Amino acid sequence: MENADIQLKIPSAVFYIDPVRAFIGNLAKNLGFPRKRVADIQLVIDEICSNAVHHGSIDATVGIKLHIRSDAHSLEILVQDTGSRHKGQHKWLTHERLSEIEANRSPSNEGGHGIFIAKSLSDTYEMQINAAGGTDVRVVFQLLKPTRGKR
Predict the structure, then answer these.
(1) I want to staple 105 with a disulfide (CB 3.0 to 4.6 A). Which of 68, 112, 128, 129 is the partner?
(2) Taking 50 as the threshold, does the pLDDT of residue 90 lie above it?
(3) Please, what sign has the CA dihedral across residues 45, 53, 133, 118?
(4) Whole-angstrom Cα distance, residue 60 to residue 68?
(5) CA-CA distance, 145 to 143, in Å (whole number)?
């Protein structure tokens, strides 16, 4: 498969996450990722996009952006939001806030697991504040192809 550079923009609504998840799953499958890894990639995208919709969007009309790059060796996905929808709460992502999320994560809590899941299942995970006052989350998945004749 050729190198691809795909850009998507979706409204900041949960309704649009499932089609994105399906699209990225099909792309990963066509790139040659094994079925289990495709499921991991879809789960990570679901978590990142859910966080962008719930925590990082001013409103549904602003939307979130996805930049997807692929080549013979990897799939890279960047999800960008524009900042919190809560008045007066801009740049919700701070080192203190991330530390708080990590400290409060437990099996009994419903929330707070998305960042941990994305970090655990991706080969590269980066999160930073963007110029719009929102958050950029970048994940990379390496495609490990079996080598012939080596065990």
Answers:
(1) 112
(2) no
(3) negative
(4) 21
(5) 6
